[in-house]
């Protein structure tokens, strides 16, 4: 195991090859590290910089070590993999990395990264204290998805396939600046072969078989944008998790990448989640602090008690994100 440093960026040699990570934050070894894992067609910077550079997120960064992990070969300047290269499962790389680095983590994953962290958590429950899963799909692709992908391979470029995975149809139709930026970045990426390998690896994922007796042992916050490509998959995942330890955040006007389009709302929800785990108890909740309560609200006691899980709906009417079964907080956005 060897590590060499260039500012906050580290290249870590593991038995599965070199892993690129970026570390910043408090360096507090008494708390779990916040470990992020990006989606396909992105790297840690393009996926998480907007969120973790957001002003209100700095309070969290000051209290935790934050580790951004790049999937093998996905970082800027990565060596191009040769033809026929077999990409090592990313959860295996994480196991090797974490065994030398951190006692426990709070995982934050998007898309493929959410799947990888889910798989890692199921096999290493003692290493994960909490999970934030954005646009997660824990299922293998069905036959219809497989057939659609085969057709897409013939009619669409790799960048278009990945963009339809990252963004909603509304965003694609609008051809926003965000879409154009990511399309150009993927199309001109020097490591496009590596990106394609990661994409094919995710497309060939296995079903995690999550159900009530085979689920996460830690608190989980599921996040998905309204009309996002994986909205139905996130809803289905929510139905399979323990309702006493799961919060579901469905964000209006967030599109497929809520960490890029709604960093303020996601930061506040993340703070609540961390508080529910027993950390940052004295943290100021900024705009949300006025709505804080330590008892069940009337709407939650009437409707939430009948619902399967605690749900936060980020819309004009607000919602709730109780970080624990006995501690409810109301949110008005």
UniProtKB/TrEMBL annotation:
This is NDRG family member 2. Pfam families: Ndr. PANTHER family: N-MYC DOWNSTREAM REGULATED. Belongs to the NDRG family. InterPro entries: AB_hydrolase_fold, NDRG. Residues 295-333 are annotated as: Disordered. SUPFAM superfamilies: alpha/beta-Hydrolases. Residues 295-304 have a biased composition (Low complexity).
